[in-house]
Amino acid sequence: MSKTTVTDPFWQGYRQLVRERMIPYQWSVISDEADVHIETENDNTPIAAIEHSHAIQNLKIAAGQATGDFYGFWFQDSDVYKWLEAVAYTLADEPDAALQAKADGVIALIAAAQEPDGYLDTYFQIRAPQRKFQHVSESHELYCMGHYIEAGIAYHAATGNEQALTIAVKMADCIDAHFGPEAGKLHGYPGHPELELALAKLADVTGATKYSQLAKYMLDQRGTQPNFFAQQAKAATHSGDSYWAGGEPAAAYLQNRVPVRDLDHAEGHAVRMVYLLVGMVHVARQTGDASLLDAAKRLWQDITQKQMYVTGGVGATSAGEAFTFDYDLPNDTMYCETCASCAMAFLAKQLLLTEPKGEYGDVLERELYNGTISGMALDGEHFFYVNPLAVNPEASAKDPTKSHVKVTRPAWFGCACCPPNLARLVASVDQYIYTESADTIYNHLFIGSTRQFANGLTITIDGNYPWSGDLTYTFAAEQPVATTLAIRIPAWSQHTTATINGTAVPIQTEDGFWRITRQFDATTKITLHLDMAPRRVVADPRITADLGKVSVMRGPVVYCLEQADNGPHLPWLSLPTSAPLTTQVDTTTFSVPVTTITAPGNRLAGPQAAPYTATASAPTLTFIPYFAWANRTPGEMQVWVTANA
Amino acid sequence: MSKTTVTDPFWQGYRQLVRERMIPYQWSVISDEADVHIETENDNTPIAAIEHSHAIQNLKIAAGQATGDFYGFWFQDSDVYKWLEAVAYTLADEPDAALQAKADGVIALIAAAQEPDGYLDTYFQIRAPQRKFQHVSESHELYCMGHYIEAGIAYHAATGNEQALTIAVKMADCIDAHFGPEAGKLHGYPGHPELELALAKLADVTGATKYSQLAKYMLDQRGTQPNFFAQQAKAATHSGDSYWAGGEPAAAYLQNRVPVRDLDHAEGHAVRMVYLLVGMVHVARQTGDASLLDAAKRLWQDITQKQMYVTGGVGATSAGEAFTFDYDLPNDTMYCETCASCAMAFLAKQLLLTEPKGEYGDVLERELYNGTISGMALDGEHFFYVNPLAVNPEASAKDPTKSHVKVTRPAWFGCACCPPNLARLVASVDQYIYTESADTIYNHLFIGSTRQFANGLTITIDGNYPWSGDLTYTFAAEQPVATTLAIRIPAWSQHTTATINGTAVPIQTEDGFWRITRQFDATTKITLHLDMAPRRVVADPRITADLGKVSVMRGPVVYCLEQADNGPHLPWLSLPTSAPLTTQVDTTTFSVPVTTITAPGNRLAGPQAAPYTATASAPTLTFIPYFAWANRTPGEMQVWVTANA
């Protein structure tokens, strides 16, 4: 892939956080160098068993370089792999010899821990070698190796480290030797989907179609009868480490109820569901499987039209971290795992690679500016697993059914999937700006950047997005390049204008893109002016939780009310339908500049038979970007605000 | 206690259900004669282990009259005792030789199962005799024996069966021999409060103050350090039957965090909390313990002012079936266990016996006409454990965090505390109409009835309450009786009028009572006219869930919208502030006549920036009594309705 240099202040800030804070910090956690308070994701009571990460140590023990027992969750290895993947993207962006040396060492450690046949899962190597691949619905072996394959590909691409890719190939070959339609192989598929998308990436990188065929086999096999998971579960000898000693979860939780092509509703554990879709789209593209793609697109529609929050969050219930049913989007009990929003970004990208449509970019952008980065504090060292849309600190403290809704971002989690997932997404955000077809360059994101394309054209985007909607596209080329540049015009931009070489041009869109077909060279200049007027968003009325409420957005950014600005009892505030929304550039409140929005509002005076008719005071409501919440004194927060006439 | 004959159509109907349906039905369940689908209370998945009741069989095994293993919950015995108590009140009301013979047989069985020292708990007798009283925070031994003591007292009073009382006395003596301040005794108290209130009743019946002293000791000891529960838990050898193998619950769950006099907030498991208060008030009255009474009254205020639903339901979270925090009253995730509302009625009665105040009667009435009887279908054979204020059947089916919110009443429960608790309350409702002091007869409820008092006066109340607010009090006496009749004037009755012997008289109230001091005889006639205009109730604005909403009440009855009358999407309906509320007598919809309320309403047309401003149609909203919901086609229900201008 051609190199993209990100110059955008917004993302440069986040990428700097990843490079300077998250990567060193996460290393100190996974290598047990830091004394970090580890929080469990679902409970205010830390699990005594997860007091430190031990993830690197598990690899050392498996490699014979240390002694001791395995420690942590079954998927502890994946924390290392996701860290490594984030490192890879960071090194691709900006060389760092010391970091590369450290990562090379981790690659060598992983190689040492890998068994001769390619198998690598430290839990089973240390604790239960006799149970390898015997209970994959639960075991996360395929999930962990999938994450390594992604990391190995990225690290090889960034640094040329051949060992990184060799490990991945050996893993995939090991899995290929054990799983497949042939007699004597396991006719199975991952408990936590992830390997499918990793195998598809490996097929792209190596050109070996057997990896997409293996992924396709796993996708085809999933949910069929006789059911593989049920068979393994029946035969399984559980250890004390089992989550599911009390019984396997429902097949729907594991997306194993029916074959994937028969799913018409996103169901079960949200991250599993969306990772599965990422793999489905990628494999469908590679194998030309139209029915697989159709199923994935149907589920994309279900999610984005009926099961997604305005922030891009998915997973409406904490029970199973799962999808529930259409239009069920409660704001204060939801899950909205950071990983699930990352997964939605991955899925949008796969769809854009398959079939460019503006709607995919619209959701990609919704995730990138809202539901993903809300998972990280502005210090880069504290993280949300759960991203609520309404928070009452007293409820989080005193109602156990809301204890998963944290009011401040913990330093780390016993189940630490989210922080490194977000790190790898942010570190690779440059890869989401464009996709290409034979005759068209598609521009999905308005991230300030310079990118050189294979056709000889270099495109530079300048601007201060998302705070400004004014963007300038300039070009460089040895000689003029005749091509089509298709720029996504966001659905939210009501009044978009543009100029080409200083002349106003009308914008027509098709599939969400404005297509400019011409000769591009250094004399070409396009300006694009997106409509950044703050706006009210109204939910589908079938979403009961949002009835009578609005959320406020500006550009791609979702806003919220926070107690720090608006005082307590946020539910007592309302926003009149006619109240003007005013923007201010705020460079002092947070460690990064943001645009805030204010509006004259109402505050409930007391009990009212009709809603909000009386006003004790007429406060100014201050809305801040949702991603920036919980960076000040802990307090209430809400995205959806009562509207009044 | 003098006999009260209930003539009231409303309560006669319920009492007939208890006599003719609930008691035979519940007998068939506890004696395993019926093949009933047993539902667990918290989960849509039945617990495989509780497929039938086995409660009588457990007693037979403990008595040596049958062989086999114990089966069911630890507190299975209590289902028999509560059934027996309901039988007692029913026999007191109307003799039934066959039923009495059956109940006499159960008493004999219980006597046979009781050990020579008075101990009786079939779980420990059958399974673990070595662990008697060794882990009382969890074991329910004291809870079960408490329930027997209540039943024995009631059965003895109703039938004169001496054995019934002897068993109770032996149990209390056994507990007295094991618990107390003396060296060598256990310095403990019940895990599930109940015994305290039973011991207080036994002290009243026997005159033996040692029982109130034992109860007082247990109340005084609770929550002190070193903590008894913690000490026992540390030493406990758990069996596979333990709920709490994973660790004891928080001390607050068990009302064991601080001494009871230091509690300023109702906390933990709601039924435990309120049963504890019932015992506190009764014991405080018996022992003249002012600080104990003050603590109970403070907690009553906390509950009724800050933690009680409009229906009288308490217990805002399903996690631990517990209280949460002030003004936290979500309508669709709450617990509101039927038993907890029964407990609130018991508590109100104890407070009325101690210190007559209208507010206690107001809450008593709220419980009796709403949150208690909503626990039973109009057929008397289906029951709610959880009494929601808003129901969406799809959410109950598809969101596991709402699976405890049933849409239809199950036939029975694995944990079957509620159905027999409601039966004994309804069967004894005659005991809640009056209390007496030396010079005053207090009338708390407007239940049509005739009661003969010790002073020679007989009072008859005629009316058709709660459907009509017109009540007539007539009197009979051998010779005129000079006394004070104090009639509670409900706080909700805005315009109350009355006549004495045909002459309109002004009503003045003190502590919620209208006091009439005079000579009463057969020539005396009082008419009372309560204001039965339907009214809107507005919640405290700190109750976020009810912001912008109203509930509709008429007299003591809370109303609700049901899908059967109003179509789907109940949250789309709103009630204009100015809309008149009209009443209709409806004798056809349900098996009992009810008064329904209609009003011109609005239905949301579609997405709206401001709430409910557009109306696709102007439907007539039909409100039915809350207690009658879920007796037709399953569907949505809600008590709180959006108000609009």
UniProtKB/TrEMBL annotation, chains A, B:
Pfam families: Beta-AFase-like_GH127_cat, Glyco_hydro127C, Glyco_hydro127M. InterPro entries: 6-hairpin_glycosidase_sf, Beta-AFase-like, Beta-AFase-like_GH127_C, Beta-AFase-like_GH127_cat, Beta-AFase-like_GH127_middle. GO terms for biological process: carbohydrate metabolic process. Residues 440-532 form the Non-reducing end beta-L-arabinofuranosidase-like GH127 middle domain. Residues 5-430 form the Non-reducing end beta-L-arabinofuranosidase-like GH127 catalytic domain. It comes from the Bacteria. Residues 534-641 form the Non-reducing end beta-L-arabinofuranosidase-like GH127 C-terminal domain. PANTHER family: DUF1680 DOMAIN PROTEIN (AFU_ORTHOLOGUE AFUA_1G08910) (PTHR43465:SF2). This is Glycoside hydrolase family 127 protein. It comes from Lacticaseibacillus nasuensis JCM 17158.
